[in-house]
């Protein structure tokens, strides 16, 4: 039996690394007495696969993992057993059975919707915020610097992230802070982090933000078939 589960990653656990998250689930499967299938060989490990890593410091209400079991289990029982042993900020929302031919999470769910907020450093200025964002989206090139591994070293390269930004809009301005909603690529075809979006807004528009005040939450994942 193979299960795909949707779960949250909230609160202080937004700082939990991808590798530590894998370890947390592996320990939780043991504590919850979930009959997980292990790989063969000298170093067997649980057949668990998570989606693309979430940027550190970002909350999410829509993370996913796939896990293979050695025997069938009721989905509600699977959810309840895990939720009894998982920390309160990580909870299984729902799960479903999938077959061996189902494409992996990382190969299909490569479009992400974020809610992002930050404090304004110039809240007293009269600015048409939506107009500024629309003007930014009219750019054909929005370059940022990214670190890329080259051999054993890391090099800095310029990347045009404009093709990776599918949607970006203002979601509210209040009490000296501003909220954005964005839909971006987050897979092998391209990857844009919330912090990078705020950096390009700061650099290319009249909207000036305190980048250290950023809060972001992943609220949806979409497949390759997503349409604007």
From TrEMBL:
A Pfam family assignment: DUF2344
Sequence ranges assigned to domain DUF2344 in this UniProt record: 2-194
NCBIfam families noted in UniProt: sam_1_link_chp (TIGR03936)
Protein name: DUF2344 domain-containing protein
Provenance organism: Soehngenia longivitae
